[in-house]
Design brief:
- Helix 9 (225-233) links the parallel strand 7 and strand 8.
- It contains eleven helices and ten strands.
- By secondary structure, the chain is of the alpha/beta class.
- The chain has helices spanning 36-42, 69-82, 95-106, 126-142, 147-157, 160-165, 167-179, 185-196, 225-233, 250-253, 255-269, and strands spanning 3-6, 9-16, 20-25, 46-51, 88-93, 111-117, 212-217, 239-243, 274-278, 284-288.
- The strands form two sheets. It has an eight-stranded mixed beta sheet with strand order 1-2-4-3-5-6-7-8, sandwiched between helices. A two-stranded antiparallel ribbon has the order 9-10.
- Helix 2 (69-82) crosses helix 3.
- The longest helix has 17 residues, at 126-142.
């Protein structure tokens, strides 16, 4: 993975494919590799830039200080500026959708399309706020994510069907949770606290002119369909799809459905890039990249 120093810290990111650039943001507690089923498809037509969150994957750890969604949006804007990319699309799952919407609101001239999956930009409901903070308290206390905490976390990410019959996606996540180090936990907890204490953007969505796709799993316990509908109701023309029998990490539980929605949306909203190629007769022929 390439590395750039962004706002004083080393950020690792994937950079694969060619075409119109897409910035992909992964979920809390995961890393850039979460997007592999989408990267393999999208990179046939687009350039995918997929950073690791701070204190996740290979990106540098955060200090002991609160870190909020606008901070992340600022960091990823700096990443795209460092890559000299003035226009791009954003695809974000969970926290990736939260900072992705922040970017779309702050930089409408740059963000040409935004797709969010299992995300919500309203305030955290008080009951969930308490539940999630209790989980963070446990991680902070032990400087790790013990097996008992892992069992409490899993239902927030997967449907019952996936938990019972999809070990190929559940077990790697459990292993990832076990792999977080003492050094990573404080920054991870700070990002979590930033997620759950976020300020609502719902009233600002009416001003969003960027084409927007909202996807949500029918059985998403963390960001249920009611949240997705509330966001769509605040927007003019947002496209909303509920994915049947699917939990929070819809891109892994139902990758084919998610990929098809993404490709259809991106083809409708992002301008084609026309490039020239040389024919055997030395005459130029043109083809559409994306």
């Amino acid at each position: 993975m390439p590395t750039l120093r962004i706002n004083g810290r080393l950020m690792h990111y994937l950079d694969e494919g060619k075409g119109f650039p897409l910035l992909l943001g992964h979920s809390f507690l995961w890393n850039a590799n979460m997007w592999r089923p989408q990267i393999d498809i999208l990179t046939t037509q687009y350039r995918c830039i997929v950073p690791d969150l701070w204190s996740h994957g290979q990106s540098e750890n955060l200090p002991h200080a609160p870190y909020r969604i606008p901070n992340l949006a600022h960091d990823y804007w700096a990443l795209m500026q460092a890559l000299d990319l003035s226009e791009f699309g954003v695809i974000g799952l969970s926290i990736g959708g939260m900072w992705g919407m922040q970017m779309a609101l702050h930089y409408p001239e740059a963000v040409k399309a935004v797709a969010i999956i299992g995300s919500y930009v309203g305030e955290e409901p008080e009951k969930q706020h308490q539940q999630f903070n209790a989980l963070l308290d446990t991680a902070e206390q032990f400087f790790q994510i013990p097996s008992s905490l892992q069992q409490a976390i899993l239902p927030y990410f997967f449907s019952d069907k996936a938990l019972n019959s999809r070990p190929e996606i559940v077990q790697p996540f459990k292993s990832l949770l076990s792999s977080y180090t003492h050094e990573q936990i404080p920054g991870l907890v700070n990002i979590g606290r930033g997620i759950f204490s976020r300020t609502s953007l719902l009233d600002r969505l009416v001003d969003l002119e960027t084409p927007t796709l909202i996807l949500v799993g029918e059985e998403d316990r963390s960001r249920p369909p009611s949240h997705a509908k509330k966001m769509a109701n605040h927007m003019d023309g947002a496209e909303l799809h509920i994915i049947p029998k699917t939990g929070h990490i819809a891109n892994l539980e139902s990758p084919d459905i998610v990929n098809q929605h993404l490709l259809t949306f991106l083809r409708k909203t992002l301008k084609p890039q026309i490039v020239s190629t040389q024919t055997s007769s030395n005459k130029k022929r043109f083809r559409v990249l994306a």
